[in-house]
What does this fold into?
Amino acid sequence: MPVDSPPPVPQRLREMLKDYPEHIQTLQADLNRVVEKPSKGIPLSEQAIWALEAALSTFAVDAREETKAAEAGGDPAAIAQAKAKERLMFQASSSNGGMRLGLMNDLWDYFKLIEGV
It folds into this structure.
């Protein structure tokens, strides 16, 4: 993988969030920022994890708010859809879902190449 390519959003997260392309774009932008403007003294891979965790946490909180709004509206279909999204976002942000280290090898490989590890 060429070093001048952007860091990849982990495949597992892309699969989980396939119905939410705006979320994938946000994750990609956050990873790009890590590479473009890294914090000194902190490994890029750690910075990338923090960026992903922050974004995924925001997605989960936003999904929870969508569920609350749907419940207030009382439409059973909207409630079911919002709850499904909420479950997915919490799963993506959990260490048992999308953020599990073994599922992010494509991102680790990228940073190994960048950092020369």
Summary: The chain has one domain: 11-115. Residues 11-115 form one domain. The two ends are 14 Å apart (CA to CA).
